[in-house]
Queue: 2 jobs
Job 1
Amino acid sequence: MSPRVITLESEIDWPGFRREARTLLASLVPPDEVVWQTPGHPAPELWQAEAPPSPVAGSAPMRRLGGSGPSRLVVPPAFITLCEKVVLHQDPQRFALLYRLLWRLVHERGLRQDPLDPDRLRARQMLQSVRRDLHKMKAFVRFRPVGQPEGEPPLSVAWFEPEHHIVEAVVPFFVRRFTQMHWAILTPECSVRWMPAPANSPPLAGEDALPGELEFGPGASKEQAPAPDQGEALWLTYYAHIFNPARLKLSMMAKEMPRKYWANLPEAQLIAPLAAQASERTTRMVQAVPAAPRRRIPARAPLPPVDSMHDPEASLAALAKSADRCRDCPLGEHATQVVFGEGALQPPLMLVGEQPGDQEDLAGQPFVGPAGRLLDRALQELGWPRDALYLTNAVKHFKFELRGTRRIHKSPGQREVLACQQWLEREVALVRPKAFVALGATAARALVGRAVPVMSERGQWLTGPAGLPVLITLHPSALLRGDPAEKDSAWRAWLDDLALASRYIRGEEEGALSQPRAEA
Ligand code: URA
C-alpha cells in the first residue's frame, strides 16, 4: 500500500504537524503508512506520484475512532514541549519520529514507563541538541556595525551558522536583548532584521505588539556578513586581558564553546596563542611577589581630625559615608552597607551595642531587628524616649556566616573591634553624650578599653571615653537567647541594670557621676 504523503508548509511547521498528526491518528493511520515532507525535504518522487491525497485535503476516507480506539487525544504536556523543540531539529525524519511516538503513546500503554525506548531516547537526544543550539546561538552571536547611508540608523549585522532550524525560535531573545538596536542576523537558511520603532512612536497597542519591525528574508552567505572593525580590536584586547592562564582548561572550554563555532567568534583566534603562553605565565604568577589586593571601592578620604569638625550633624553624615567605604577590616566588603548610629546630639545617654544584625544591615539603621525591638520595650518601660537618646554599635558593619541563603550573625573579633574604634571615637566626640550604656561585652571592651566580664560587672559604672561613666549590662540578644524558664527574672534584672542610668535621663547626672558603684 502506498504511504500517505503529508506536506508541511515549512521546516518548522509545528501547527501544521499538530493538525495533520491529530487527523491521522483519529483516522487510525499507522506511522509506517505516512511520509512527511517539507519544502527542504520532499518525499521521494515515487511516492509523490502514487500517494493518495492527505487526509486533511478531504478526499481520503477517514476512519473515525471507534469504541476500541481513543476518542480524545490526551498526551502528557511534556510531550508537547518535546515536540515543539524536536520540530526544530535538522533531521528530516523528525516528523516521522514524532508521529510514531504519538501513535505509540496512544496505542502502547507501556511506552510511558519505558524511558529507554529507542524512539524516546532519540527524541530526547534531538531535544537536547536543539536546546544546545539555541543556547549557543544566544551566546555566540557577535554583531558588527556596518556603514549605513546618511540619515539611516546604524545597523549591526551578525553571521551565525545554527545546526538546526532555530532562527525563528531564538529571535524573540534578540529582540528583547537588543530592542533599541537596529540589527540583522544572517544564517545560511534565513536572515532576520530588526528595526526598532522611533523614539517618538505612539504607545504599543496590544500585549503582543512589538516595539519595532521584524522582517525575515532568505538565507545568506558568510561573505555578505561584515568584516572585523575597530570595536572588535578593543574586544580582543579586553578578552586577552581577562584571560586567566592559571585557570585554563582547554577541554572545558571546548565543551562550553565547541570548535565548530570558533570560525565565527573573533576571540577564538586568541585561544591558541594564549593557551601556548599559559604555563609560562602561570609559573611567573606563582613566583611573583604577592601584591596587595586592589580595593573594590575607591579608597576613602583621610579622616578629618576631631577638633576640625564643627558642624556635628554634617560631620556625622560625612563620617558615616567614610565608614561605609572603610576596608580596614574585611567586614565592609561583605556587608550591605555601614550602619552608623542615630539619635539625638548631646543626649543624656549613648547606648552602644555590638554590631548591626541582619535586619540592621539591610535597613542601614541600628537596633531595628529582634534585639532592637526588645530594647525598645525596655526603653518604654523605663520611660526613656528613644529619640532623646543616641543608639550605636562598637562595630559598624554586619559580620555573618552564610548558611545556605541565611546570614547567621558572627561575633566580631578583636581585630574588627579595634579597626572600628576610630569611628566610635569620632562619633562620641561629635555626639557628646553625658554617659554610656554598654550593651554586652564587645561594647564594654570598646568603651572601657579592656575586657569586661559582663556577668560579674553588670550594673556597675566604669570609666569610658573622655572619663565619662559607662554602665555595664547585658546585650538584649542575651535575653532573647536565655533560658525561657528564667525569662521574667532576666528581664527584671536587666531593667534594674538599665534603671541605674535613669538619673541621666532625668538630668541628675552630677550625682551619678560622683557616686559610681565600682571602679573609678
Ligand atoms: N545588635 C546590636 O548590637 N546592634 C544592633 O544594631 C542590632 C543588634
Job 2
Amino acid sequence: MSGDLSKFRIDADRLMGRIERLGEIGSLPGGGVCRLALTDEDKAGRDLVTGWMRDLGLDVSVDRIGNVWGIRAGLEGGPPVLLGSHIDTVATGGLYDGTLGVLAGLEVIATLNDAAVETRFPVAVAFFTNEEGSRFAPDMMGSAVHQGSLPLEEALAVVGIDGATVGSELQRIGYGGTIEPETLCPRAFLELHIEQGPVLEREGLEIGAVTGVQGISWTEYVLTGVSNHAGTTPMAYRHDAGLVAAEAIVAARRVTGEIGGTQVATVGSLKLEPNLVNVVPEKAVFTIDLRNAEEEALQQAEAAVETAIRKAAEAEGVTVASRKLARFEPVAFDERLVSIIEARAKSAGLSIRRMHSGAGHDAQMFAPNCPTAMIFVPSRDGLSHNIREYTAPELIAAGARILLETALMLASDEFDLAKDQEKRP
Ligand code: HGY
Ligand code: MN
Ligand code: MN
C-alpha cells in the first residue's frame, strides 16, 4: 500500500460510541468508571470488547494471563503490527485511560474493513490484563508477562488487596486462556493514550509524540509499634506506627525536592490498625510510588526514602518490613516510529511536540523487544485517575487518525522495519 494515507477516514462517532458504551460498564453514580482488574466489571468489559473484535472479523486469542488479542490477516503472514492498551481501570477511573488505545485500535480495523484494504502485514489489536495494578501489583502485569519480564506463575500467584489471587480470578471470570503469552511477537507496537497530565493542554497542542516512559518504583511498608491507650500513655512511652507513617509521607515529599528533575513521590494507600480514635496505632501499612525519568536518580530517591523511614522508625521504637510491589526502569521508544508519528501529525496539520510519559503503560514492556511508540492526546485540566477525566472528541479523532496512518505505514512496504532493524544499535 502506498500513496495518500489521508484518504482513510476515522469514523469519530463510531469510536466515541464504543468509548461511551464501554464506559457504561462499571459506571459510577457520580460519573467515571470502576473496572478493577479481573472483577465482574472487567469481565463484562472484556466480553464486550472481545465481541467487537469478532464482529470486525478478527481472529481472537486469549493467553494464560488473560491478555486478549485479535489479528486481521495481511497479504503476507508473520508478526503483526500490534495496537493496544488496557480496559481495566482504577477505582475512580475515567472513560479514556487505556480504553482509548484499545478502541481506537478497533476503529483502525473498522476503517480498513470499510475501505476493503489489505495490508501487507497483519494488524492486531490487544488489551492486556491488569495494566493498572490497583488490585494486583505490579501494574502492567499482563504485558510484562507477555513480554517475558514477569514470570507467568509468579503473576498467577499474586494476592490482591482483597485476598483473591490473579490465577483464581482469571478462572472465575473465564479468561484464563490456554495460549502461551509469548506466542504473539509483534512487528511493532503502537499505543494511543491520553496524556494524563497538563502539558499538551497548557501548551495548546493536539498530539504528543511520546519518546519514552519514566521509571517506576512501588514499595509497600509495614510498620509495627505498640497499641496503647490514647489517654494514659505518656508520649515518651509510645511506639506509634502512625507517627512514623506520617514522617514517611513528609520525607517522600522532601526527597522529591532534593532530587528535583522529574522526581515524583506518592503515598496513595495508608491503613492504620486498629484505626480507632482512642488507640495509639500499632500498625501502619502504606505504599510509596516513586518515579523518575533517570534510573540513577530514581535509585537515589528510593535510598533516601528508605533511610528516612528507618531512622524515624528507630527513634520511635517501631519495626519496619517492606516489599517491592513494582520496579520498572525508564524506557526509550523507537526514534523511527516517533519520527513517523511527528511527520503524520504535521502532514495532518496537527500541532505536536515530543514528550516523556509520566504514567506507566503497556508500551514500556514492549519497548526493549520491538519497535514501539506512543501517541498522546491532551487531558482536560491534566486530570486522570479521576472521574472527571476528559478529552474532547475532536482530539480523540485526531489521535486515532495518527494511530491509523502510523499503523498503515508500519503494516505496508512504506516502511520496512526489518531493513531498518539492522541499523538499530
Ligand atoms: O501507574 C501507572 O502509571 C499506570 O496508570 N498503571
Ligand atoms: Mn493507562
Ligand atoms: Mn491508569
